[in-house]
Design goal:
490 residues; alpha/beta; five-stranded parallel beta sheet; globular; 16% strand; FAD/NAD(P)-binding domain; binds 3-acetylpyridine adenine dinucleotide; 21 strands
Amino acid sequence: MASAQSAWQPRIAIIGAGISGIAAVVKLRKAGFSQLTVFEKADKVGGTWRENTYPGLACDIPSHWYSFSFEPNPDWHHRCAHGPEIQAYLERTAQKYGVTDIVRFNSAVTRLVYQAPHWLLYCNGQNSEPEQFDIVISATGILHRTIMPAIPGLDDFAGASFHSAHWDHSVDYHGKRIGVIGTGSTSCQIVGAVTKDAQHLTLFQRTAQWVMPSPQKAYSNFTRWLRKVWPFRSVLSKVVWRAYAENTLGRANAGNKALVKLIDVIARWHLKKYVPDPVLRAKLTPDYVVGCKRLIYSSDFYPAISRENASVVTEGIERIEAEGVRTNDGVLHPLDILVLATGFDASSFILPTQVIGENGQELSEVWDGSPRAHRAVAMPGFPNFWMVEGPTGPIGNFSLIAISESQVDYIIRCLNEMHARKSAWMAPTQEAFKNYNEAMNAAVVNTSWYHGGCNSWYLDKSGLPNLYPWLSSRYFKEMKTPDFSEFRFS
Ligand code: N01
């Protein structure tokens, strides 16, 4: 990739010091950009891996694929790394590449205003004086605004209650009666980890989930040593897992019925093998197409929920009371701890930061609950405003690190083009944005996320999945060679 000439050093603000923010700094620096400032609302790097600390937290994407291309880690202890190991990796990487040095911690960006050709950036906790930047890159992540369930009486509970993303480690859950509301990836990991130590675990399930066996395994000292002396093994692992994900679930989601059937057969076999009780099995059997919701990979969940000290409650929740959860059939389920594994608002992206583009238009109004972007990274009317992991990217059961890196590379190619044209700004044209999103809307209705008969966080206010509807390899190819005719330049 061509590097920026040192004469041109735009001031670049990067919002967020998670995976995408770290990738942006390392790659921008490598491309010759040095005027970088990272704004981070918290006091540490790590994003989602800093926020989530619940028991059982792990990545369900194999680690050698879920690693930065510029920082392979032969030392992963598990095929699917646990949360603390990923957080340590991110902190170590940020330190090693000098990212931490340029992060302004405890600085939440509250407002961005475009005043051609600059952005004025307003930050929490500072005086009202804004700072001026030439380029803004939003790297705020997708799943960071927690959803608290609208269940009456949440505040009445006398025990400890918290959202899964704000796990209260001061509460000892051993020997306690634990209730978990929600049955997503998070809940399955929590249930898999804590049930054996609970007096009783009650899972309040509104919708059953398809659960595939996890490819998890621990790496021996010898394997880790081998990866150090022979890095090719890690590269191979990455290539194999990526090809596997794309050609199984990726193709199934994109509409391949034979693969949907195959995954359905494996998921049912998994359920039958580890849940011998037919009554419990019936409760845990989903009534929608496999892959409609984000597929869960866990080998701990079924054995845990089949234990004698666990139960699944499918009756709807009427209200929370001081002693526990009362369901619609009038039964009170007494609890000491209530965990709300109720997910995240995936439609916010950079919001609620107020982003005001050309002609005073507000991003929140343009999106209106259905965020869209051009190639998931840019918006017409918002010049020099870029997003990493913006709307309609190829997320799902795929390595977000690989996606973030491809988007940062695309942004760098665009910045270099802007410089070559001596432009002060660039933004996608309204027409290119419209064509891209119309093609996507037409294709996304063929995916199992849309017609699979489920509700999920993939769907936004438009009723369509906020996801890239084609194979991720297509996205990576498209991002390698930006079509500059899709942009306006100053
Ligand atoms: O959240 P979810 P999550 N009453 O939205 C239920 C990533 N992740 O935190 O299905 C009762 O999937 C809701 O019920 P329903 C991953 O991308 C990754 O588990 O809407 N229940 C659902 O069961 C994942 O997809 C890893 O009927 C209520 C649950 O809460 C994403 O995070 C690990 C309710 C929410 O499930 C989100 O997962 C963990 C109510 N009022 C997470 N409101 C990796 O390994 C909501 N629910 C990479």
